[in-house]
Amino acid sequence: MGNRAKKKTKEAAGVDDFLPLEGNNVNQVQSVPIKKQAQEKDPIFSAKKKPTVLYIGHIPHGFFEDQMRGFFSQFGAIKRLRISRNRKTGKSKHYGFIEFESPAVAEIVADCMHNYLLFEHILKVQLVPPEKIHPQLWNGSNRKFKPLKWQRIQMKHHNRERTAKEQDHLMKAILKKDAKRRKKIEAAGIEYDYPDITDGLPPVPKKIKFSDDQE
After folding, report:
1. Which residues belong to any copy of the RRM domain (predicted)?
2. Taking Cα atoms as reference points, which of 162, 166, 170 lies closest to residue 197?
3. Distance between CA atoms of 113 and 57, rounded to whole angstroms?
């Protein structure tokens, strides 16, 4: 054999004897894409990748969690449902999310309900890809909202006992408004005089300082 033939046989043997750095065989490394292709062909594996979450925008007032669940459950089983609400007032922000158990049902709802007229509002329904779903999206889902009694809360806040500093600040604000009101009456050329607000108030207690001899 010549020198060229010997070099070719050595190169061929080197390829067969070559091992990757991780210690796996070449055949095992090449078989990984084949497994991925088999998983993608699997209907169960492909169904997990399909979106099942819907974004619903322009939700009309009065169409809350119970109404949405009753309306959209006619398409299929609902796994989770959430309407975005204001943290302070609890009022609806007019958009929410629904997760169906079947991705096929989610696609049907997105096709049928997008630009659907509901109570003079055109719904906006879109599929949300799984990679774009926030991990805290379903916090507070499937909970019944209890409206807060804001009138009672404001009544307690208004009738609370105020400190002397708060009363002084409140009185200054009232006198400032009264002075502006008097100026507007005079500027309009109206001769009208009404009693001062401070006439009916009790006098402010004076601070008494004691000398060292009196102590």
Report:
1. 52-130
2. 170
3. 11
Residue 65's closest CA among 85, 87, 82?
Answer: 82
* Type of residue at 173: A
Return the closest-CA partner of residue 76 out of 103, 114, 113, 116. Answer: 103
Residue 52 located in a structural domain:
yes
Place of tokens 């119970």: 66
Q: What is the pLDDT of residues 24-60, one digit of tens each?
A: 444 444 444 555 555 455 555 455 578 899 999 999 9
Which of 111, 132, 153 is the last residue in one of the domains?
A: 132
Nearest-angstrom CA–CA distance, 138 and 131: 15
Q: Which among 99, 81, 211 is positioned nearest to 144, based on CA atoms?
A: 81
Do 113 and 51 belong to one domain? yes
Cα separation of the two ends of the chain: 126
- Domain range enclosing 105: 47-132
pLDDT tens digits for range 65-123: 999 999 999 999 999 999 998 887 788 899 999 999 999 999 999 999 999 999 999 99
